[in-house]
User: Fold this.
Amino acid sequence: MNALPDSFYVRSDVTRIAKDLVGKVLVSTINGQTTSGLIVETEAYSYQERGCHAFNSRMTERNQVMFGAGGHAYVYLCYGVHHLFNVVTNVPGKAEAVLIRALQPLTGEPVMMTRMNAVNQSRITSGPGKLTKALGIDRTLNGATLRSSELWIEMGEQVPLKSIVVTTRIGIDYAGKDARLPWRFYWRGNEWISRP
DNA sequence: TAGAGGATTGAT
DNA sequence: TCAATCCTCTAC
Assistant:
């Protein structure tokens, strides 16, 4: 394991971290089975905007992990069906996080395909709800450090800024004008992004 | 304590 | 276009 240091996560610019995470490698070892993938799509969330569960620094039982130190996992259940994985950033008290929306599989593809009940590996990690299932991530990892033996993020490829597309986030129409913030980032031309 | 709705997905 | 599915949050 060669996990990114806490200093990577404990920074004050969540959009910068979201951009920096594109090209990094997310690794899980669950029940002795290792799976990993290149991060190709992310979204940033901050207590300062309405798209975020912690808007206005409102802390609840669900989102309290976001109020802790950067470098931990925030995992929650969406629509009662899908687990979504976020990376908590910034210092304690400043609730910010980066949602990992899509991966390009690197290792453990057979394990992922089994978990996904898939006959081929096409698009098995192209979406926030899919990649958590493929990597075996669920709410038992909520609050876990990203320097644990089960879940961590490593250096991957250096992605030039011009290869990162900046656009608006998906599925947060309820956020009003904040839904138009250019806080979604993805690797230009990568076939594993969740949608164009 | 009841009721509404969601940072999605896959099938119709 | 729509149902699945259940946890969380809000209002009463």
Residues 60-62, 76-81 of chain A lie near DNA strand C (CB under 10 Å from a C1').
